[in-house]
Design goal:
This protein folds into 4 domains: 8-122, no CATH class; 133-179 and 206-230; 238-346, no CATH class; 352-385. Helix 2 (68-74) crosses helix 3. The protein has helices at residues 19-31, 68-74, 79-89, 118-122, 128-185, 189-198, 238-242, 246-255, 260-263, 269-281, 296-306, 311-323, 325-330, 339-346, 357-384, and strands at residues 33-37, 41-44, 51-56, 59-64, 106-109, 112-115. It starts with 18 loop residues before the first helix and ends with a helix. With 385 residues, it is α+β, with helices and mostly antiparallel strands. A 4-stranded antiparallel beta sheet has the order 1-4-6-5. The protein has 15 helices and 6 strands.
């Protein structure tokens, strides 16, 4: 369901002093949903289909899919004064604080009414300071986590270097001991005796210490720490949503049901294909899909895609599902397509368990008893004739 913000500044607006016009305008706000106008639209008169001469420029507005009579009836007003209020809201107002659209607020177009300043009030942000503070705190915490991760890696690297150095030193010491024993035994006794004759001391050469392995070069292009994750892409309109994979955009719509109105899931070709296939298999007319928050069928199909079910698999399961007794009994529709229903429709039929040896023996005994009973009955029938 769409939502709209009500600015407290309306209390100082000229519309607040027009009770009937205020009720009509607030009712239209509650009925409106975001809609993009790609081409200029002519404003129509409230009581006829003649254009007024003013044109609505392209942009985003709040679209009310209702007639003037429907808006007035919903506002619980008298029809004459309600229609007169619609005319005032669609006319220029020199006393208005905002001269955007020459003071017009609600105009009639082909198909319904447009709330002209709908998006300006909806996009108005009253919580910038608080959200900026939370963003700075999250950024500071992320930087702290990154430093801790890098420090942990450096400690691990230093420990590995120390272990490697200790193993290298131990191996060098063992090799030097082996060389000293070989010199004493391998026939170089002349050198030892000459050294002893001259009084020179013979010292075994000490092994050179093994140099620790060098650290890998650290460059500015090193990959990001594991604790840093990238934020998911948030589509802002239908075109950006269609550029994402189906499962990803469906999951995003489920997580952000209010923002899903902007990406219009009812216009996704996959959702329309499922709806048309279901109604065609059931012999019904093509469906009219509504907004995501208002149409439970659209939400059900998006939930199937968010659960990882591919479009081809879903289309393949629809004919069998529609022919099932469960589906025909309840006269169900698009909103009944849940992941559990899909799993039941595509689950293989249970196979009968094979007979064990004991079951086979018992079955043969039962067959023999039945055969003997039949033979005895036949004999009695012959004797009684």
């Amino acid at each position: 369901m769409a939502f709209v913000k009500l600015d407290c500044a309306i209390l100082q607006s000229t519309i607040w002093f027009d009770r009937v016009g205020r009720d009509v305008f607030l009712t239209a706000l509650l009925l409106a949903e975001p809609r993009e106008v790609s081409e200029p639209l002519e404003q129509l008169r409230v009581n006829s289909l003649e254009p007024t001469g003013w044109v609505v420029p392209p942009g985003w507005y709040g679209f009310v899919p209702a007639s003037g009579l429907g808006i007035v009836s919903t506002a619980r007003l008298e029809m004459a004064e309600g229609l007169a209020a619609l005319e005032r809201l669609g006319a220029p107002e020199p006393e208005s604080r905002s001269q955007e659209f020459e003071g017009r607020r609600l105009v009639r177009v082909n198909g319904g009414y447009l709330v002209l300043n709908y998006m300006r009030h909806r996009d108005k942000d009253h919580t910038t300071a608080e959200r900026s503070k939370r963003w700075r705190e999250r950024k500071k915490q992320a930087a702290t986590d990154t430093r801790d991760t890098v420090a942990t890696r450096r400690v691990d690297t230093a420990e590995r270097r120390c272990d490697t150095y200790a193993r290298s030193a131990s191996a060098s010491a063992s090799a030097s001991v082996g060389v000293g024993v070989g010199v004493g035994v391998g026939g170089v006794g002349d050198f030892s005796s000459r050294a002893a004759a001259t009084g020179a001391s013979v010292a075994s050469p000490s092994p050179a210490p093994a140099s620790p392995p060098a650290d890998p070069p650290v460059t500015s292009g090193s990959r990001e720490p594991e604790s840093v994750t990238r934020a998911p892409v948030a589509p802002r309109n239908l075109a950006e949503a269609l550029a994402l994979p189906l499962a990803e955009r469906a999951e995003w719509a489920e997580r952000n049901p209010h923002a899903a109105e902007w990406v219009q899931p009812q216009q996704w070709p996959e959702v329309r294909a499922v709806a048309e296939a279901l109604h065609s298999a059931g012999g019904l007319a093509p469906p009219r899909l509504g907004a995501y928050q208002r149409d439970s069928g659209v939400r059900a199909v998006v939930g199937l895609f968010a659960a990882g079910i591919a479009l081809a698999e879903l289309l393949g399961a629809i004919p069998g599902l529609v022919e099932s007794a469960w589906w025909k009994q309840g006269r169900r529709g698009l909103s009944a397509l849940t992941p559990e229903v899909y799993r039941r429709a595509t689950a293989p039929e249970p196979r009968a368990a094979p007979l064990t040896q004991a079951d086979a023996v018992l079955q043969r005994q039962l067959d023999r008893v039945a055969m003997l009973e039949a033979r005895e009955a036949e004999q009695k029938r012959v004797l009684t004739q």
